[in-house]
Amino acid sequence: MKFIDYKDIKTQGELKFRAEKNLQRMESEPYKPEKIFQDASYNWPGDWEGRTLLALVSDEKTLHVEARYLKEIMSLLEGHLNEHKYFGKKLEQVLSEQLLASNSWFLRAMCEHYIKNGDAQSREIILSVTENLLAKTLPYYEKYPTDMSIRQNIGEAMGDLLQIPVNDWQLSTDTGCAFIPLDGYTAVYELFPSETLKQLIIRAIEIFASIDKAGIRCQTHATLSGTRGILRFYRLTGERKYLEMAKELFTLYEEQGMTVNYANYNWFCRPEWTEGCAVVDSFIVAMELFAFTGEYKYAQALNRIYKNAFRFSQRYNGGLGCDICTTEDQPVLTPGQGVFEAFWCCSMRCGEGIYRLSSAQYLTRGKEVFVPLYNDNEATLLDGKVKVTQKVNDWNASEVTFAIAKADTAFILRLYVPEFATNVRVNGEKAKIENGFAVVEVTSPQTLTLSFDLPVTKDACRGKTRYFVGDLMLGKIVNGEGRFGKTYQINGETYYEIVNMILQNESSKDIKQEVIF
Predict the structure, then answer these.
(1) 95-96 and 169-170 as β-strands: parallel, antiparallel, unpaired?
(2) What is the C-alpha to C-alpha distance for residues 426 and 141, in angstroms, rounded to an integer?
(3) How many CB atoms lie within 10 A of CB 164?
(4) Which of 193, 247, 264, 510 has the most crowded CB, counting CB atoms within 10 A?
(5) Are 326 and 513 in contact (CB under 8 A)?
(6) Element counts in the chain: helices (H) and strands (E)
(7) What is the pLDDT of residues 411-441, one digit of tens each?
(8) pLDDT tens-digit profile of 200-241?
């Protein structure tokens, strides 16, 4: 399946609101041109700048606007790069995991900027960093340390460098962040393919695959970012082994790195706090796996991560924060103390996350149009032959209308249905269901309304119970005041859908919601 191009969709509704809030945050004090560039002592060189630039380009594409400070930041770049056009010190004998991971985000930003604008500046930076940094990293990957004896269960929400180099690597407490660049490597390879870069990617993936991620407690964000790079390489090469590898990595993440409300443990097997960056990575991986496989479980994962983890993670100011990991032993979902917003990394990744959600509103395969996620929009599909307006009629998307104004070709519309939905109807008539999607044959302009009932359901999770309405989890408010949405009565007690934090205010720092029983 193919994702829709941003030029062919006008995103409205909830995703537009979220993108607008994120852009407002990205244009606030910490990210303005006079503040964005970090000094030489910052041990994530290029991370702050790269993630901010990536967010600005992403928000521009989602909203079809011009970010206020993007051009100015681009004009100031050269004065903050080294002679090889990346951030930090030039590569010497010891390679810092964090320098490599950080400049990967900078490269990603430049790739997206180049794709959107075709500018000479981005192109020159990409090629210089590839030649002078990326192309020199293969010998380091060949001796990347994987022995757990040199690792420790340490680290804060902002990773730090271990002081003593190992095998010419200066390692990070964000274990495995040396493989975040698989995302950057493959983004460059897509634009400027070369045999040198291809061989680097192949070998880095092989080494990454050989690591016991759970055994050495890899950072889940690093693992999922690396997985996104593997999926891009699968798309570019068509080699099935890369898709199978990505599926295995996502299964590992679900089993040993995911909270009960579909967020993440910051490290595998270490449920200490969640990280919005990884939540974004996880639903991007899920949507890409759905696009490549068509398997319903990945569309369901996309919806459940978005509704139960991302909605809670995006704060009222548009940034992303860290939360307490919900587990069978810790059933209360609440923002993490001291990291209500991870403004130094996660808030910037929010922009790319919303942009990718926007692109997943429609996927096409031949004359089939899949809708795995519901949101208000106007879209042009199938090479301009189809024009459709989507309107979500309630917050939980149990009624969605598609006004098809143009249908110059016949096509099949496939509409996502939550697993336990009942009485699924299209224009009041019983819907045909195939593999979890309602199927509608469209031959002419018309208006279609998908509707279904969403009873309260429960499932067993690690020996405890979760309650759902569709893909939305329910919980009891332990502490906090605000607009918590619709209420449900279960066994004489009041339950709410997981709190949508972007609709709250500063007092939401104190919200606590029990989500497993």
Answers:
(1) parallel
(2) 54
(3) 8
(4) 264
(5) no
(6) 15, 22
(7) 999 999 999 999 999 999 999 999 999 999 9
(8) 999 999 999 999 999 999 999 999 999 999 999 999 999 999
